[in-house]
Structures are given as C-alpha cells and as structure tokens.
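Today's session is about reading a structure prediction critically. Students often jump straight to the picture, but the first step is always the sequence itself: look for stretches that repeat, for charged clusters, for runs of hydrophobic residues. Only then move on to the predicted structure, which in these notes is written as discrete structure tokens rather than atom positions. Here is the chain we will use throughout the hour.
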Amino acid sequence: MEQTTSEIAKAFVAAQKEFEKTGLDSKNPHFRNDYASLAACIGAVKEALNVNGIALVQKTHECDRGIKIESIFLHESGQTISGGILILPAEAETPQKYGSALTYARRYSLLAACGIPPEDKLDDDAEHVRIEQEKREKEEKQQKKETRTPPPAKKSGA
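Below is the predicted structure for this chain, in token form.
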C-alpha cells in the first residue's frame, strides 16, 4: 500500500518558509573557527515544524563503519517523510569521539533534510581554514622567491 504525503508535504512547505538561519553559535578550539551547533540547527527549524503540526525524529541505524542517521518528519495526520539515511564514517574509539561524530551527523542530516544551506564557516571541521592557510603559505613562499637577491655574477676570465 502506497503512503500518501499530501498533508505533510503541504505542512512542510509552510514550515520551510519559516525556517531561520542557524547562526554560528559555537567555536571549535582546535581550528579556531565558528560553526552552528546541533542546538542552533534544531532551533532554526523546530518551532516552524511544530507550528505546522510536524515533529522531528532522528533515528540511528546499526552501522559497522560509523554513524547512520535518518531525519524523519512526522505529521499530526500520521503521514511521514524521511530525509534519507546519512552515513558518516567514524571511529568509535571512545564514547566522546562517537558522540561527537553522532552530533556532527545529526546536524548535517537535519540541514540536508530541511534544505538549509550551510552558512559560511558552518563546518567545524575547518576545511576552509586549512584551504586558506595553504593559500597564505603558498603566497608567502612565492613572495620569498621573488624577493631573494640573485647570486653574485661570476667574474669572467679569472
């Protein structure tokens, strides 16, 4: 039996019109950059979803390779929409590392399912910081090359 989604689809469109920006409310001390926490991501959508009769559930699935998370939207009519399953490779060496990876996966699953683009500097993995640092280092290296004094000319006939 095929499930209808007409009610939840209509409610989700209404909710999406009310989604807020996540904001950059956290700082990664390792990369020294700002990012949106899970609380900020949920805060950007929860009220709009709830006002439109939609609840958010983030379900984990068994996964040997890391984290498998699914953002599911439940409508008061009983209809549901899944944002799909996101798989994030992660090492579960310690509960803290696993928890960090789970939080990261929940943020990105939610943002993708809600159609919210990441703001500048949203990634707390600081990929942009690494790219900028490499760019600066390359420019500095080029400047040093250009400012080097040429070696003294060899004397001819000596």
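Discussion point for the tutorial: The two ends are 97 Å apart (CA to CA).
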